[in-house]
């Protein structure tokens, strides 16, 4: 029983370390001209930058669609980075990641 508790504590320690490491991974997405989204590996957005020219263009729907596309791309890349980091962390045997 104590072995299981010890394993759980070690797993928690590794998970905390992984979370900290993921927070340091920065992903920048600028797939759409004039929009840049920055997110970290823990999926916390760091910034969104929109070129002033896009704000004055008067095409609100286009800007919204482009922004959504950029955000979704950033989230996907962040998820991929997290999955890769978890795959390479010894002792974290999470089904579906290996």
Structure description:
With 98 residues, the chain is of the alpha+beta class. The chain has a single domain (2-87), classed as Ybab, Chain: A, CATH 3.30.1310.10. Helix content is 56%, strand content 16%. It is built from three helices and three strands. It has helices at residues 2-24, 52-55, 60-87, and strands at 26-29, 35-40, 45-50. It has a three-stranded antiparallel β-sheet. Strand 1 and strand 2 form a beta hairpin.
Mean pLDDT: 86
Query: What summary fits the major beta sheet?
Result: 3 strands, antiparallel
CA-atom Rg in angstroms: 18 Å
| Name given to the CATH homologous superfamily | Nucleoid-associated protein YbaB-like domain
**In terms of structural class, how would the helical and strand content be classed?**
alpha+beta
State the separation between the terminal residues, measured CA to CA.
28 Å
